[in-house]
Every structure is written in structure tokens, then in C-alpha cells.
């Protein structure tokens, strides 16, 4: 492959990989705020204490008059309604009892069309990309909203199923109750059905058993005495369910001897906390002239930045057309065409019956955006934040509004952007400081127990930083043990005994980002700058060694599969070889992976095949509009035949 | 070595290692603030625009009434005066014309004494640790301030000299002007002497030439037309000076054909900036009830934290006796006895004559605290910050005040400490969020061109985070080239052409922290938790592999030398084996190195011998009061015979 073929390229980078191995946990997080706050103050804490219940706004009053202004604007409420109308009158859907829309999102116009488009131009034809299941068959369709035309899209033959609908998930949690054996098992474990909380757990793919049938595993907890049911697993009980028919296929209970951990002390809610803990006074961000950013539809402008922002049911947040203003020419310069969370891979490290299959793909299986709950104003985001709603389609195609799904705010932590003082050596009277203010785009996805906080942060010096915060509650395992002195030294608990009868199971979180970098235009190259030790010749220098930077432009996709090496390090640059700085260096951006961890699972292990995008920390592939999801388009029960690793090897 | 011997241990960890390889630089950092701010607002920007000149307070009005309250409180002004009096009447100093005090700091009482001491108790005897040079000989002395007794301290035979005094540095920059050849050279390069700015550059040790004589190299710049003389090197000109006699030993000028880069566009001061750049409105942190921390002398109390804070001329900031309140027992629990920046190692990667020796040890050679300039209120630290002065002794022993050297403030960036929402799967109406507020202790050391911002951040969940920000200005190299099209492909520039005639030379910054962890008491062990792939047996599980955590308690110092391995990873725990959690796990802290880079220099290269503490990312050694400085007590011109690597091998 020639470097020219890499001219339009995508970077998939594994920004964060966390290995959680908890020695002890203090749930809940100590509350930093005092309870006797003067709530005339517009501060985070005040808001939590006295939050007037938000009136549920009827959907008709919201977003009904939205119209798209930009080729990348997400489908509006009325467009979603129109898509549903078109589909229901289509032969595929007409006269069928069973259908579900697993995804209805904007079919983005071709990149060249978007790049050519300017404000004032007419919008390109508005189209929807639809993933539907009709009578047990998956269809990918393109719906022209203007003409009503429905075109099947050939995405090739892939194993796997589309992202679950919210209805798939909620119905799965109730379906086992219709089963007599399940009810008997629950009663045998001493649980009152009214205290039951169940979770739909994607079961991955391990062979024949997970093929040709859309399945899910359901595990349950006791809510008795606590809202924090996650801490009260009915350990060892797993129900296998057919997601299409809701039929119970199998019930396993291998945990009869494992007590359900106690409820005492597990409730994390502020309202039930003992407030006798260390407290801090109210604190907030003050902007006497208001914030400096402007949100116009889905276009965000701040300082020297401009970008398009949209909520997405699968990715959560999509940043497009990010451009930064050149301080000299005053022109906007392209930086990134599109960036988003491509996939999450969360393998647990317990090979036993009730745990081995827990190898989640949170975006492709559950929908990272579908799980992004409304942000809590003043607590999730500071004062002066702007909140953007998500407008999505339910399984039946009827649109709904996920309010306050994304927030945009200016952040100032008291930090320094740049400074220089002259030291006593020179004695010059110089103290120059530029405080650091950034713009943050935030969402928080609550994928059952875990809460992922994803921040896209923009700096005035041109840097884009993606930060992922991991919060929420651990997914724990029940155990008969109440103290480590009961545990034989050779026994593998697969985790840490956190409290009586509770084990925190070892697991990883890998988050992979899709970054379509267009630095000063779409023709970019990927450069590995390898840092090599050079040895000096005798008498050349009093130094024996020094480091040299060796630039290597990636010529093949193989070249652009990066396994980080601690002792043979490189920097990674995305450059535009046709644009030079004043002194003749290619213009570019440096890619700095935030996490350096790698998956250590066997490459042939089914979960690792499905999560093969974690085999490298960085992959660069030529632009292909259909290759956006690192775990494949149809991740659910996929066999790993459509991952980034497969495309890259092709 | 038995694990018991490791009971009191130190952790030296290489928190940050940055490899700077700049493709382009936009100096200065774009200013985020508007210029037409309403300055009734107490915001960062306002302060920069109209800062009334601070009246220089006469030293007598400051700190003259300070008295120590805690065994670790730094020497007060009157104590420093007393130490000087005592020394000047001592036989060693009496009747000598030539002496300099390179360090006068508190001789800390033994750890056991400090741990026993309680408020209300009498202070242990106040003593000063003095490093003096008298007639060319280095002396380490212990001065009892109460009794006036002066005791020589045997620190063994080491190569190297003490940290330079400020007077050493400033006099070195002027000394060459007394040399005729130097003046001729300067004139030959077309520089008016009035435009000359020179820097004292520690020359390391490379063999005989740097032995038995306290030397320094001086390099100069032109200030003509800019305060940013760093951008205008008189390339290739190096003066070797005897630091004791100020005698010019050698003048090398290998840069006659290298033009001095232009001044245009280099001035970074806000007052001369073209303000037509993107602007943001004023922003600050608001605390209507004021901050929640209390500073009582040198003791800081905030939320559940309490610690002792002192400015130090070598380390910058020392945090001692850090304790966190147990939310259940309400008792203070020990976390860290002492933590500070032990050494910085900044090797440049250019083996040529004027650059090979640039392998700085900023703490041991220049004094990280001595170089910490007054912080600029509202710009370096936010509103409501508390500022602590440093009280140090000059070379002649006369005390002086470094005002506003350290600041303490509460930080709130709009971020989330902990959150959990229930997802649509369970449908429970839960949105719990705890905003994140932290306490920050900050200093900024301006070691000539670079500004290091060191933050010790305390979280309410018990975490301590050390952050290092690198700011300021690059140290650049002159070159005849003005465009990369003039450069032969095989030529090694040892860096990047940044602007016309200016190369940014490749270099590293390694910062090593000393952390004396006392988790729940001084008897701690160091545990490596190795993450290993386990393979399942046939039929054991549908999974082929999973990860297992294997705990290894370090038994020898060798065990506790950690080279991070990306594909054979470990976690690092400091545990108290005699204190268990309720369920029987040892209580501990996890050490997470912030940077994973390693030095790639040849182990036998003289700079790497001196900076051998960068051979590993973590070292754990048994407690030894005298082993605090990773590059050795006498770092200047040291031969690497007293480094952390040597102690650890012993």
C-alpha cells in the first residue's frame, strides 16, 4: 500500500485501559459538601439538597419545531416521525407483526459533500440510516426522507446482531418472571419477587451455543433494604433467554450455598448518608459576563474553536468538522473530520459459569448514547453549562427526547495555561501567566452499574483531549467468605474480598476512539517518530550516547498498527505532507495515547477475537465510511469477523 | 534482605518523563482572555491587565516575629540570623575571607521524635543543617540553635559540590565580561555588551576535566529587541569558568557562521501582544463562604486531610505528616511521612561541543526552591488562594523572604467526583452526583527558561496526586538554516527547525519524587501485584484465558527496583501488613506512576551514571534519613557515586 492510499485515514486509538483490582473500596465516595449551605448560592451542593422535581415536559412541546441547519445535524423529531411513516408503509414492514428499529440515525452525506457545503447552501438530501429487525431478519436500509425512497444497503455477511433496543433490555429483565422454574428458584433463594432486580447481560460468543439465535443472559439481585442492589447478587443464578421470543431456554443456579450479601451500609444516596463527614464550603465557577461559547443548533463556537456536536445513540457524542482559527491568517483550519467513542470492551477475569461470558461491548451491544442519562445541572456540569438533548427513536420508531444528555461548558480549575517568570539568575522583572480555560463537552453513560464520563476538552493552544472518567458502582460477585482468613492461600478468588460475602472481580475497561483526522485537509499521513539511542564515535563527544528521532511514514496498514513499546518508544504524528510550516516542516498533530495498557488475553480466546481492536493501541486505516465501529457493525453475539483488526489485515 | 527490613521504606518514583520533540511551536500561548474586561471583577485576566506594582516590603516587617510551632517547621528568620551569628563566631568561619553557605535548613528531628510529638508538647531542640564552603572545602554542619553548638556531620566521601548559591549563579553570568578575549569575541559576533544576557550552565561530569575544581559553563544571548533572549542564542560560544575564583579558563566559539536569530515576534509579554486573537470572558472560582481549608503556621487542614507544608530551597515544597480522617472512627490515619521532589534530570540529546554537557539536575545543581519565583495572585493561583512565603538564607547566611512562593487553594473545574444514574434498564429514578473539589498545593520553579509547575493535589477519597506542568520557553540552538529545504536528508539536526535559524533540541525531563509512605504507621511493605495470563484447562470454561493477580511482597531492594513492563504489567501497593480491613485484606495505598518513560541513554554514559535514578521507574529502599536526594547530596559535578541506584545496589 502506497502512502498515497493513506491520504484519508482513520485513527483508532485505545485511549484508556483500566485494570481494576480493588483492595478496598469505600462506598460511597465521601461527600465534600456541607449540608447546611445557604442555598441562595447557585452552587453544586445546593442543587443536590433542594432540587425541585423537574416537570416532565410533554414531548410535543419539545423539539417539534426543530429543523436541520447543517448536513451533519441529527435527525429531528419530525424527520424521525417521517422515517417511521415511510417505513410503516413500506412492503417490508406492512402487514408484519414483529419488527423493531434498532437504529435510526442520520445517513451522513459523503465527506466530500460535507466539506464542500457552506452556510447558506441548500442542505444535501436528508436521509436516515435504519437498522431494523423484521421477523427475525436484520435489514440495513437507507431512507430518503424527502422522496420516501427506501433502499436496502448491502453491508455484507456478518455474524452478530444489532445493538439491543431499550425494549429488548427492559423486557429481558422481566421475562424470567413468567417462568415457573425461575420463580421456584428465586423463592428457594429466599427472595421475595417484589425485591427482585434483574439485569440483561450480553453473553458474547463462545461457539455453537451462541449462534443463529438472539440470546441474552439475565442475572438478578435483591433490592431488599437498599437501592444499591448491585451489592446484593443472587450469585450463580443465570437465566438464558431468547431475546426475540422471550422464551427461557436455560436456568442455572450454582450459587445455592452463597448467601446474598447484607444490605446494611450499601445505600449510596446523599439523602440517606450520615452527614458527619468532612465537609467543604460551596464552590462554583463564576462568569460575570456569562460563558464565551455559542451553540447555534449543533454548531459550537468558542475562542479559536468551531465544531459540530451531536448526540448519537451508539457513540454517545460525535464531534465533527473540528476547526481551529489560525492566529495569523484568521482562517479556520481543519483539524478533525469526525471523532467519537467507537467501542468499549470490558472483559471480566473469572472463567466460572456465572461470569466467563461477561465481556461487554458497551457501545455496540447496549448503545453508549442510549445509556447516557440526563445530566444533573450544577452537579454533573457547572453553572453556565449549555445542555443539549438527544432525540432518538424507540424500538417502534416513535421518537423520544433524552433531555440534558450532553453538556458544554467552560472549565477553569485555577490552573495555568502558560507561564514564565525570570529567575534570580537573570533578575529581569518578568512574571507572565495565562490562566488555563478550556471548553468541555461532556456526557455520562450509565451502563447498568458503571458510569462512564466522557469529556472532549478543547484548549486554546489547539489541543484536543479526550478524558474518560469511570464512576458508578462495581459489579460484584457473591461468595461464602466473610474474611480472608477463611480463604486458602492457593484459592483464586478472581478478585478481592471487598466486604462480607462480596468479591470485586478483576476486569479491564478498554475504550477505543475513532478519530478521522483532517489536519489542514483530508490528505494526511501517519508518521512514527521512533526515538533511538545513538552511540557516539570515539573522540566524537564526551557523551557516549544520545537520542535521535527517526521519522517513518507509514506505507501500509501493517506499518500503522502500533503496539506501544516502553523501551523502544515512538511519537505518533498525523501530518499533512502537502502543507508546510514557514520553515518547511509538515503541519501536523501529535497523537498521545492516554493509556498504555494492552489486552493480555489469548488472541484465540473468543472474547479477544471480538475485542481484537485491543490487540494494538493505535491502528490507522484508509478512509472507509462503513468502517466506524471497531467491534463491527453488528457487535451483539458477533464472532469477531468484522472488527478493526480484520479490516486492517485485509 | 528480609521483608521486615523493608518496614520503613521510601519510594522513589519517576512520576513524569517527557520527551519533547517539537514539530512546531506557537509562542506565545494564545491568550484566552479579552482585553476590555470590566475590572471590578476579581478575575484572573483583570489582574494581569492592571496590576498595581507591589510595594517592596522591607524584610524587617516580614516574618521577624515568626516562631516555630511544629518540629518540622522551617527555620524562622530569627533562627536563620542566629545560625549565622553562631557560625561567624565559630573557629571555622572566624578570620576567613571566603565562605559561602550553600544550604541552611532545619535539621529535622528523628522520625520517631516527630511521630511521638503532640501539640502542646515542647518542641524538640531546634537545629540547623548547614552546608558551607570555606576556603574551597565543603563542610556539613549541624548547628544547635539553642546551645550554639556546631557539630561537623560525616556524610562520607563523595564527588561533587553542593547546590550553587544564587550568588554563584549571578556572578558567573557577569564574570566573563572581565575577560578581554570574551569581549572581543562578543564584539566579533556583532553584539553590543549592553544587550548581552548570559546563563550559568552546570557542566556535569565527563572525566578529568570536571574534577577537583568547581566549574561552570556560561553561554550568552542577545537581548536586543526582545526580553525573550532565549530565542537569540550566540550559538557555539561557551565560556568555562572557575566558580570559586571567577577565572575564565576557556573560551570556545564554534558558532561564528551561525547567525543570531531575529528578535521579531519573540516577545511573549501580554503587554506587547496583538490582542486580536480569540478571547474568552472572565472566569474564576467562587466561594461565597470562603475556602474550607485552614493554614495554621505550616499545618494545613482541609476536609478529611491534614498535613505539614514547608518551602524548601532544594526540593521546593515538602509535604510531611499527611494524614486522612477515617470516616468511621473519626481518627486521623497516617498516609505519608514525607514527600517532595527529589531530583530532576534534563539531558539534552546533542553530542556537539556547545550542547553535550547540558544534562541538568535542577534540584541538586540549581535549587528547585531557590528558583521558585513569587506566584502571581489570581493568575498563578485562583481567588481565595493562601500564599506561603519561603524564608531562606543567602550565600552569606543573611536570611531573605521569597514571598508568595507556595499557594494553597481549593480547585473545582466543574468535574465529577463520583456519580451514578440508574439506566433505562432498571428504570429507577436515581441521579446521584458528587462534584469534585480538591485541595492543591502549588509552586512554580523557573529554572532559567523552563517553568515547572508542581501541584500536590489532595482528594476527599484519600488520593494524593502529584502533577507537574512544564511551561516557559524552550532552550534553543542557533543554526544557519532558515528552511528545511536547505537540510540534507541524512543530516542530524538533533531537533526540529522551529523558526528561521532556531532549532528546538531533543531532550527529556525526568522528575523523581521521594515518598516516605507510612500507611497506618511506619511498618509498611511493598507489594508487586503482577497481572498474569492464566490459561483454562480443557472443558474448564468456554474462555481460553483470563487474567490473574499474583501478589509478591518485595523481600530485597532488588525486588523493589521496578522497570515497568507494558506486556507483563503489575500494580504497586504500599501496604501495612499488620493492619487489616474488616474482611482481612492489608490496608494500603496504590502507587501509580504518572509517566512510563525510561531513559534510553547508555548506562555507562556519564550523564546516565549521574542520573541513574532514571534506570528504573520505581525504587524502594529501607528508611535512611540521609538518603533523600536521588542524584546524591552533592549533585554538582558529581560522578554518580552517591545516587539512589548506588544505595539500592549496596
**Average of the residue pLDDT scores of chain A:** 90
CATH homologous superfamily (4th level) name of the largest domain in chain A: Copper amine oxidase, catalytic domain
Query: Structural class, judged by helices and strands of chain A?
Result: mainly beta
Q: What gyration radius of chain A follows from the Cα positions, in whole Å?
A: 26 Å
Percent strand of chain A: 35-45%
Which term fits the overall shape of chain A?
globular
Biggest interface, and residues per chain?
A-B, 172 and 172 residues
Distance between the termini of chain A: 11 Å
Which oligomeric state applies?
homodimer
The CATH first-level class of the largest domain in chain A comes to Mainly Beta
Transmembrane segments (chains A, B): 7-29
Domain Copper amine oxidase N2-terminal (chains A, B): 70-151
Subunit structure (chains A, B): Homodimer.
Pfam family, one (chains A, B): Cu_amine_oxid
Fold blueprint:
Two copies of one chain form a homodimer.
Chain A: E1 9-20, H1 44-49, H2 77-88, E2 99-106, H3 111-116, E3 127-134, E4 137-144, E5 150-152, H4 166-174, H5 180-188, E6 196-201, E7 215-222, E8 237-242, E9 248-253, E10 284-286, E11 294-296, E12 299-302, E13 305-312, E14 316-325, E15 332-347, E16 359-360, H6 362-366, E17 386-393, E18 399-411, E19 416-421, E20 431-435, E21 438-447, E22 450-459, E23 464-472, E24 476-478, E25 495-499, E26 502-505, E27 507-517, E28 525-535, E29 545-553, E30 561-562, E31 570-580, E32 586-591, H7 606-610, E33 618-622, H8 644-649
Antiparallel strand pairs in A: 1-27, 1-33, 2-3, 3-4, 4-5, 6-7, 7-8, 8-9, 11-12, 12-13, 13-14, 14-15, 15-16, 15-27, 17-18, 18-21, 19-20, 21-22, 22-23, 24-26, 25-26, 28-29, 28-31, 30-33, 31-32
Pfam family, one (chains A, B): Cu_amine_oxid
Transmembrane segments (chains A, B): 7-29
Subunit structure (chains A, B): Homodimer.
